[in-house]
Amino acid sequence: MESFGVEGESETLKAIFLPSVSPSHLLPVVDIARIFAVHGVDVTIITTPANAAVFQSSIDRDASRGRSIRTHLVKLPQVPGLPEGVETINASTPMDIALKVSEALNLLEPQFRQIFHQLNPDFIVSDMFYPSTVDAAAELGIPRLIYVGGTYFAHCAMDSLERFEPHKKVDSEDESFLIPGLPYNLEMTRSQIPERFKTPTEFSYIMKKVKESEKKSYGSLFKSFYAFEGPYEELYRTIVGTKSWNVGPVSSWVNQDVSDKRSRGHGKEEEEGNGKASWLAWLDSKKKGSVVYVCFGSMNNFPNTQLVEIAHGLEDCGHDFLWVVGKINEGEGRAFLEEFGKRVEASNKGCLIWGWAPQLLILDHPAVGGVMTHCGMNTVIETVDAGLPMVTWPLFAEQFFNERLLVDVLKIAVPIGAKKWKSWSDFGDEIMERGKIGDAIALLMGEGEECEEMRRRVKALSQEAKKAIQIGGSSYNSLKDVIQEMKSFKLEKLNPKDEKPLA
Ligand code: UDP
Q1: Which residue in 61, 261, 444, 460 has the most C-beta neighbors within 10 A?
Q2: What is the pLDDT of residues 378-393, one digit of tens each?
Q3: What is the annotated signal peptide range for this record (predicted)?
Q4: Which of 379, 385, 388, 425 to mutate to test the pocket of ligand 1 (most atoms within 8 A of CB)?
């Protein structure tokens, strides 16, 4: 059942969506593509077979619901050193292979251009990691919208870092400094900001290209909602100087059916045969709001020592927990976790998910009362949408900025006390001890007035998230607005103002 109107007026508007290949970029862009299709736009998503496998079942369901949406497959070119069939970048992808995947994707550029010419779209929505699509769209005389991962908040903060370089004015890694030009006094330390702001890396070069293409784009699409970070949305438009539309929460807008929620991100509907998944049976047996859900996204690779601390922290915290340990290779860490899993299962305190968790379903479950997260932007929005407070444990990318938004501005999270930014491929030497993990969970799940206040605030934001995608809500209106602009652009292209219309 959908809670928004479907209008037939934009049937002839054709769009191409080009998502990137890591789950946290692929999933929201596919969700956004599906939202456009719900609203009558004819959508083609271009991707490789392994990436399509992750979301094709949702596209098939959408097509059977009468939406004009399909996937166009391209084969990832062979690059020396890239194993056959490796087309995605996730926690199990070593850095050298991730670079090979990027190299192979770059080789696809001429093919993308050719497909754009063949399919003749009215506009293109491309992930930020395909900067050349801005020129390809210009060649066709059509708008390119860029999908920018992360929050407006983080982008404004990172722009200020680039512009004013406040981190260069402190003497040590742990001295805090003010990031100027934001609507609130954002303080960070040098050890918490991404490496590229301190030392030029290969990623700095990539981000320079991304930023240039962002400014040359017709506009950008974000996946949060106005009540979540409205002042930063407005600031971002001023900084970048382009249009921008905030159309979230995207995951709940299109994944309203259990089958869509269950298959999101891994293509399969059932993880464990045809019976009820063991995590679900376990959650069903728990009291309302009593369980902490612990998940660190799709790129996480904690060292064994950290896994041991998390395990003890959870076992001793006094609350039940559902922990997504992900794919752990054979070895000491796996053997420890298997033992740990058996023990907490026997005591009925915890449940472990090995592999991919159907996160949207879990967040919806009434037994879940709080979330421990690495502050990946998708998880943050999904958690706020579900009305759950968080323990924030930022690790990499723009996650330390997201933490400040959740803790200082919105006051819906308890910080665990992470001090060092890491690269997703190198977790460095910071180990969060079990005591800190337990303390943060105690504050998250506690019964004091402060905890209740935090819960009330996040519930209120969840209501705003739900309103945002209803007819007349902020994200709904943004979507209508961007579709209308794309139509106007198309009409103007067909009938330029300086030419007399045909009699
Ligand atoms: N996700 C999931 N199951 C998992 C791990 C992740 O469904 O076991 C989804 C999660 O719902 C989110 C995305 O994958 O939509 C992860 O994105 P996020 O920005 O939170 O973190 P990242 O993967 O970039 O670290």
Answers
A1: 444
A2: 999 999 999 999 999 9
A3: none
A4: 379
CA distance readout (Å), 408 to 402, 413, 422, 454: 10, 9, 22, 12
Average pLDDT over residues 257-286: 80
Residue type, 43: V
Sign of CA dihedral 232, 234, 239, 244: positive
Which ligand 1 atom sits nearest the alpha carbon of residue 358?
7
Given the residues 25, 155, 167, 319, the one annotated as active site: 25
> Side by side, which strands form the sheet with 69-73?
69-73, 42-47, 14-18, 123-127, 144-147, 219-222, 243-246
Which residue's alpha carbon is at the smallest distance from atom 24 of ligand 1? 24
Q: Is the pLDDT higher at 236 or at 4?
A: 236
| Nearest ligand 1 atom, CA 296 | 25
Q: Catalytic pick from 127, 159, 320, 385? A: 127
Assess whether 117 carries a catalytic annotation.
Answer: no
Alpha-carbon Rg for the chain, nearest whole angstrom, is 23
Dist. CA 70–CA 66, nearest whole Å: 12
Direct distance between the N- and C-terminal alpha carbons of the chain, in angstroms, rounded to an integer: 46
The rounded Å distance from CA 89 to ligand 1 centre is 13
Q: How far is the CA of 501 from the centre of ligand 1 (A)?
A: 50
Q: Which residues share a beta bridge with 222?
A: 246
Judge if the upstream peptide bond of residue 249 is cis by omega within 30 degrees of 0.
Answer: yes
Q: In three state form, how does the secondary structure of 424-485 look?
A: CCECCCCCCCHHHHHHHHHHHHCCCHHHHHHHHHHHHHHHHHHHHCCCCCHHHHHHHHHHHH
pTM exceeds cut of 0.80: yes
Q: How far, in Å, is the centroid of ligand 1 from the Cα of 295?
A: 8
**Three-state DSSP state, 408:** helix
Distances (CA, A) of 92 to 48, 171, 269, 366, 423: 18, 37, 22, 31, 14
Residue 191 in tokens = 């050890």
CA 359–ligand 1 middle distance (angstroms): 8
CA distance 352 to 369: 17
CA atoms within 13 A on the CB side of 20: 21
- Whether residue 129 contacts residue 25, with contact meaning beta carbons closer than 8 Å, is answered with yes
Q: What is the pLDDT of residues 307-319, one digit of tens each?
A: 999 999 999 999 9
Among protein residues, the one with the nearest Cα to ligand 1's atom 13 is 24
Helix (H) or strand (E) holding 498: none
What mean pLDDT is reported for the chain? Answer: 93
Task: Write out pLDDT tens, residues 348-360.
Answer: 999 999 999 999 9
What is the atom index within ligand 1 of the atom nearest the CA of 424?
Answer: 25
Told to judge if 408 belongs to the known catalytic residues of this protein, a careful annotator would answer no
Task: Give the separation between CA 125 and CA 475, rounded to whole angstroms.
Answer: 17
Per the DSSP assignment, residues forming a β-bridge with 126 are 18, 146
